[in-house]
Amino acid sequence: MLILGIETSCDETAVGVVVDGRRLLANVVASQAPVHARYGGVVPEVASRHHLEAMLPVVRAALSEAGCRPADLDAIAVTAGPGLSGSLLVGLNTAKALAFAWTKPLVAVNHLEGHMYANWLGEDRPAFPAVVLIVSGGHSELILAEEHGVYRLLGRTRDDAAGEAFDKAARVLGLGFPGGPAIEREARLARVKPPRLPRAWLGQSSDFSFSGLKTAVGRAAREAVAPVAEIAAGFQEAVVDVLVTKTVRAVKASSARSVILSGGVAANGPLRQALAERSPAPVWAPPLALCTDNGAMIAAAGFYCLESGAAGLDLDVRAAWPIA
Ligand code: KG4
Ligand code: ZN
Questions:
Q1: How far is the CA of 192 from the centre of ligand 2 (A)?
Q2: Between the CA atoms of 208, 213, 214 and 215, what dihedral angle is there, to the nearest 10 degrees?
Q3: Which is it for strands 75-81 and 2-7: parallel, antiparallel or unpaired?
Q4: 315 within some domain
Q5: Could you say which DSSP state residue 72 is in?
Q6: Is residue 320 situated within a structural domain?
Q7: Is 60 helix (H, G, I), strand (E, B) or coil?
Q8: Ligand 1 binding pocket mutation candidate from 109, 135, 265 (most atoms within 8 A of CB)
Q9: What is the span of the domain harbouring residue 40?
Q10: H-helix or E-strand spanning residue 152
Q11: pLDDT tens digits for 226-268?
Q12: Would strands 12-19 and 106-110 be described as parallel, antiparallel, or unpaired?
């Protein structure tokens, strides 16, 4: 089954083509990161306008990279939420128009579920039940996936998302946008043991909180308690410690058979390494290019979502759409 996946929930205009939810034929991403870097974060109005300009060229590029014609496709999958409404609308309306014009079923995909299914693109697949940590610019959720489409929310952030914390910390440290890769690079330059920054454990809760850490980074930078590289490393250590500790605890409590890391922050090297070292179950993390937003993960998820039925052309965006 050949599925074209469209993703426009934030600032990447992305289209992928995937066979049977696992074999990647094309993955084209037009990133707006340089546009938003000027503002230090994603500006929703600017994002929707750029999606409009990039959308059809990216669809064409993906079909050409996959070497297939519209007639070869079996379905069109699209991110319906959660995300920025104006951005989601561009992808959703494009998907509706293509599904109508090419007479293909339309599948609505939850963006977070898409991130999870980036781990299905490859030869081997994670086993259920799985503990899934989705950490991106907009989300930090810990989920128990019992099987395809059956999710239980274990915990989520009470304030900033993990990626948002990286972006904000990078901004106060003057490291630019997006903050995750910038902090990771800068932290590698640290020469002495980094300062220990606060971790919000919230008792035994599986929820996260990163706003106190963000404040601590701001204070450390103002008071110049250490060079920027050391503060960046201290920040990264604190985020990784909290994410990994809570994930490992959830694995032990649920006897999950695998741990799935996904979302933009899953690209973080120290996070991948610490989780692999400390997890009692096998850890899955997508290749770096499939961690951040892309259309292939939406096409992969679409393969499984199609089992529960196609959407109608009255499908609307769901800016806030919980996965569980
Ligand atoms: O999944 P994604 O592309 O978009 C959302 O759905 O939000 O995630 C983007 C987020 C940004 O906050 C970015 O700073 C973070 O992922 N990120 C990273 C790394 N690469 C991207 N965070 C930490 N380390 C990285 N290497
Ligand atoms: Zn995302």
A1: 34
A2: 130
A3: parallel
A4: no
A5: G
A6: no
A7: helix
A8: 265
A9: 2-118+290-308
A10: strand 150-156
A11: 999 999 999 999 999 999 999 999 999 998 999 999 999 999 9
A12: unpaired
